[in-house]
Amino acid sequence: MPARALACAVVALIGATACGTISEPKQRSRDAATLALRKLAAATRAPVFVTRDREGTRLWGLVKEFYQKRDYAPAWIDGNAPRPQMDDFIAALQRADREGLDPELYNASTLARRRADASRGFLSKKGFEATEAGALDAWLTYLYMEYASDLANGLSDLAHADPNWQIRGQTFDPLATLAAALDQNAISKSLDDLVPRDPQYTGLRKALADYRQIAAKGGWQPVRAIGKIKIKPGQRHALVPVIARRLAVSGDYTGEVQETDTAYGPPLQEAVRAFQRRHGLEPDGVIGPALVAQLNVPIDARVRQIALNLERWRWLPRDLGDRHIIVNIPEYRLEVWDRGRVPLAMRVVVGKKDTPTPIFSDRMTYLVFAPYWNVPPDIVEKETLPSVMNDPGFLDRANMEVVDTKGNPVDPEAVDLSNPAAYRFRQRPGTSNSLGLVKFMFPNQFNVYLHDTPADSLFARATRSFSHGCVRLEQPEALAAYVLADQPSWTAEKIAEAMHGDEETIVKLRSPIPVYLGYWTARVAPDGLLHFNDDIYGVDARQTQALTERLARLREHAAEAATAAADLKSVVKRAM
Fold first, then answer.
1. Residue 364, strand partner residues
2. Running DSSP on this structure, what letter comes out for residue 227?
3. Which of 1, 33, 236, 378 might form a disulfide with 262, Cβ 3.0–4.6 angstroms?
4. 255 with 283, same domain?
5. With contact defined as beta carbons under 8 Å apart, do 395 and 402 qualify?
6. pLDDT at 304 over 90
7. Element housing 426 (H / E)
8. Given pLDDT bands bounded at 50, 70 and 90, which one contains residue 567?
9. How many other CB atoms sit within 10 Å of the CB of residue 352?
10. Considering the domain boundaries, does residue 16 fall inside one?
């Protein structure tokens, strides 16, 4: 037999294109798969692999639209043979754990087994049965849209399930993303492109891998302290080698652990201080109950904490702005990010538990030097009015005045206390003003902003939740100089003069700066160190419960889909 004829015969045997034409069996397989897709799209109920919730309904609607636009032609399977895009996608799903997501939520192992079953060698390729190929094709499309949406906006849009999280995420079109990825044969890249590129996200992702590796080696043992211990630098205690061994596991202590050495020496002291700084504790080097409590948080809990905070990064826009300000509420920290660098960082004071700082984002557009403090109505009702009624000299001592709704001064003795809505209480500019000497405005529904404070002593505390919701700044002058750097007339001397002026001075920014008041209890700092912070508002607890419940439902559903995968023909039948 001539070589060309032999080649054509071999290609025909495996159901591929022979001598420039499509084989009849392959065309029949394509037609059958297309028919199965039409039946699934026209069915009165969604297939078993579609989650029975609002998100599943939304995604299945997009799947049907996807196939309608391509006249129900399969996307992942050609005849009975998988396209390269299928292998690319399955491999991407198997790497989902890198992002803190469970590959089995997307049936990664089940898909890998079905793919392996369809290929048994070059001349003996089994392939996919035609009707099953249609159902599998729809399933893969649904899973792509599900996984892509989870990467782009967070797991099943969990952000929108928490009304206290008000940072607007990005818009995402999974249908257009999939169509482009298939056309360009770039499935894996299309998914990688959805992942946040922020260095804090990539740092957390590495931390997740590191902590999983620690867990795989057995993690760390709890420090069993009897009573309220207090070991100061230079003292001796039987727990010293235990602490050293524990800190060695987490990488905080790199010295040699001497099991019989009970002296609390300088190398271990520095390791303790480093650990304290990473966990929001006062870095005094004293081994006490607070330190032991943090040491005893199980490794599995830390892994879950890192994964939850990775999830929160997916709720943010991918482009935070070349310049932007991030306030991490539980860390009591503000950072200015400028093209990947942090030229300015400082400690802050945030809201108390009963008056929490809201989680949201907006744009800083102006600042006010020597500001008046217009006392919010709830503070007037709960604090100011009772003080005025009990102490006639309160307003004078607090440097406050009363104005009507038009801003005209009112004699305090003429105020009708039975109608407080007719008046506003405000504190005049000055060093005793509750807002300090400058405030930074990003107008928002919460009436929250960044501002100076006369209570500088609060910044020395490790825990700094004392405000009514606004964010107090440790270095307001430095922030003013930064945001006005593109206005040369605002020199350091002029800024200082305006801050200590007798009248308000409003200065508009030439370029608004995005401000994000976020909530990350696990975060990688610019120096690369992983920090854990207390869940001061209970956000971790609330979101962890919601996430756990959601994951339980998704895993149950994934198990049902895996069972159905054994007979994909029945998936088409059940959908009718």
1. 513
2. S
3. 236
4. yes
5. yes
6. yes
7. strand 423-427
8. confident
9. 15
10. no
- Residue 573 is predicted with a pLDDT of 65
Average pLDDT, the chain: 88
The whole-angstrom separation of Cα 457 and Cα 454 is 9
Tell me how far apart the alpha carbons of residues 317 and 439 are, in angstroms, rounded to a whole number. Answer: 26
Provide the strand spans (E) within 156-199.
Answer: 165-166
pLDDT value at 189 more than 50: yes
Residue 524: strand pairing partners:
530
Beta bridge partners of 374: 426
**Residue 518 included in any domain:** yes
CA 360 to chain centroid: 13
Residue type, 80: N
**Which of the two residues, 446 and 573, has the higher pLDDT score?**
446
How far is residue 159's CA from residue 329's CA, in Å, rounded to a whole number? 17
Together in a domain, 238 and 261: yes
Q: In total, how many domains does the chain have?
A: 4
Asked if 359 and 272 sit in the same domain, the reply is no
Report d(CA 509, CA 325) in Å as an integer.
Answer: 14
Q: Average the pLDDT over each of 14-18, 74-78, 400-404, 548-552 and give the range with the smallest value.
A: 14-18
Same-domain pairing of 415 and 441? no
Write the CATH number for 272.
Answer: 1.10.101.10
- Choose between 186 and 389: higher pLDDT: 186
Residue 406 domain flag: yes
CA nearest to 464, candidates 401, 414, 533, 403: 533
Give helix then strand counts, H and E, for the chain. Answer: 20, 18
pTM: 0.89
Domain hosting 405: range is: 378-419
Residue 397: pLDDT band by 50, 70, 90 thresholds?
A: confident
Please determine, for residue 7, whether its predicted confidence score (pLDDT) is greater than 70: no
Place of tokens 């078993």: 48
Q: Residue 467 sits in a domain of what CATH number?
A: 2.40.440.10
Confidence at residue 13, expressed as pLDDT on a 0 to 100 scale: 39
C-alpha 529/C-alpha 204 separation (Å) is 10
- Which pLDDT score is estimated for 406? 75
> Are residues 108 and 232 part of one domain?
no
Alpha helix segments (H runs only) across 49-171: 54-69, 84-94, 108-117, 130-153
178 vs 184: CA distance, rounded Å: 10
Q: How far apart (Å, rounded) are the C-alpha atoms in residues 1 and 15?
A: 20
Phi, psi of 556 (to 5 degrees): -60, -45
- Identify which of 546, 557, 398, 407 has the alpha carbon closest to the alpha carbon of residue 53: 557
Q: What is the pLDDT of residues 488-503, one digit of tens each?
A: 999 999 999 999 998 8
**How many other CB atoms sit within 10 Å of the CB of residue 542?**
14
Q: Among 271, 301, 331, which residue terminates a domain?
A: 301
pLDDT at 404 over 90: no
**Residue of 154, 202, 101 lying closest to 523 (CA atoms):** 202
Residue among 425, 424, 427 nearest 370 (CA): 427
- DSSP calls for 237-258: -TTHHHHHHHHHHTTS--S---
Same domain membership, residue 439 and residue 323: yes
Q: Is residue 424 part of a domain?
A: no
* Mean pLDDT within 266-291: 96
Which token pair is 11?
């290609």
Range in 42-51, 305-314, 530-539 the model is least confident about: 42-51
Please tell me whether residues 228 and 293 are part of one structural domain. yes
Residue where the block lists tokens 């003080």: 387
